[in-house]
């Protein structure tokens, strides 16, 4: 597993699930299927949002951003993990580790903020329906999406540096399947309490900003729904928000468990399996959550399929 031992190799070895060779074979098949489903599902949403005029609305603009983000998010870790699951060489260069951590942190933070922006969009649709197109105009949507991507990637540049500023004890074996902050800090031969506190504080700030926006938006949505007298009207209002709430619950539930727990409670084995769910399962199920509950998307898919099968005159 360490063919570069004894050489000038200065990178890391991602041990991943190498202590469970039988599990590696099963994971390879499962992850390959999940990855292909993620590519199919998220690409379909992006293409439909671009081609179908009925889906060229703020909601689907943000949804296509989320789909593109999930594609990038999963591609950051899964292809390399698949290679490592099938081969003996588990190495990653120092530059590769830095790049992976930077992109991973940036995409995770971007999704955090983007889910808050999507909650505000649902608030405007349910609580201000007559002014929705005025509030959520194209320039504002583009600005909010751009701010989500730019702000968090600047932040990830700062977070990414911290794990590599501490001296390592000559150990370059990471007990994880990708370069992640908690297992990287485990390699340090000095006290990392200050680093962990800084990372924890930044993570809390990002989560609180997004959660405050989500809480405000859905608080207003619930109030608006309670004023709707018809059961059908309440179901319709909830239907526009149900998919988003499901995605928010999956994303924040696993994310908070990983990043906002005390370091002395961090279990490396548990962390690997939770990260597997967080980085692979969630991006895969997102498009299916939206398409299975959304008549607009399923209708657009049927029209696209019918158009593809109908010969041109």
List the helices and strands and how they pair.
Elements: E1 12-14, H1 21-51, H2 58-86, E2 91-92, H3 94-127, H4 132-135, H5 138-165, E3 173-174, H6 181-185, H7 193-227, H8 231-259, H9 268-292, H10 295-309
Parallel strand pairs: 1-3
Antiparallel strand pairs: 1-2
Helix pairs in contact: 1-2, 1-9, 2-3, 2-9, 3-5, 3-7, 3-8, 5-7, 7-8, 8-9
Class derived from helix and strand content: mainly alpha
Q: Termini distance?
A: 60 Å
Count the DSSP helices.
10
Query: On the 0-100 scale, what is the average pLDDT?
Result: 81
- List low-confidence stretches: none
Strand order of the largest sheet: 2-1-3
The protein's oligomeric status is single chain
Give the strand content.
under 5%
Number of strands: 3
How would you sum up the major sheet? 3 strands, mixed
- Give the ordered list of helices and strands: EHHEHHHEHHHHH
What value does the Rg take, in angstroms? Answer: 22 Å
Into which percent range does the helicity of residues fall? over 70%
Shape: globular
């Amino acid at each position: 597993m360490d063919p570069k031992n004894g050489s000038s190799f200065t990178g890391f070895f991602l041990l991943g699930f190498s202590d469970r060779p039988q599990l590696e074979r099963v994971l390879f098949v499962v992850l390959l299927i999940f990855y292909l489903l993620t590519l199919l599902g998220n690409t379909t949403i992006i293409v439909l949002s671009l081609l179908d005029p009925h889906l060229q609305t703020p909601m689907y603009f943000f949804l296509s951003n989320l789909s593109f983000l999930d594609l990038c998010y999963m591609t950051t870790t899964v292809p390399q993990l698949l290679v490592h699951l099938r081969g003996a060489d588990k190495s990653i260069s120092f530059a590769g580790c830095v790049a992976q951590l930077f992109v991973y942190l940036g995409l995770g933070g971007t999704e955090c903020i983007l889910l808050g922006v999507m909650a505000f969009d649902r608030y405007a649709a349910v609580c201000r329906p007559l002014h929705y197109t005025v509030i959520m105009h194209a320039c504002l949507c583009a600005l909010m999406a751009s701010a989500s991507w730019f702000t968090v990637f600047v932040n990830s540049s700062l977070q990414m540096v911290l794990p590599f500023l501490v001296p390592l004890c000559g150990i370059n074996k990471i007990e994880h399947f990708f370069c992640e902050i908690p297992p990287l800090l485990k390699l340090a031969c000095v006290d990392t309490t200050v680093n962990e506190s800084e990372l924890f504080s930044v993570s809390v700030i990002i989560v609180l900003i997004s959660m405050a926006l989500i809480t405000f938006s859905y608080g207003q949505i619930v109030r608006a729904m309670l004023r709707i007298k018809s059961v059908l009207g309440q179901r319709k209002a909830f239907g526009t928000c149900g998919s988003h709430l499901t995605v928010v619950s999956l994303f924040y539930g696993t994310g908070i468990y990983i990043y906002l727990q005390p370091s002395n409670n961090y279990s490396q084995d548990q962390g690997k399996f939770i990260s597997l769910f967080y980085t692979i399962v969630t991006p895969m199920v997102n498009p299916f959550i939206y398409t299975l509950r959304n008549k607009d998307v399923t209708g657009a898919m049927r029209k696209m399929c019918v158009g593809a099968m109908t010969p041109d005159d």
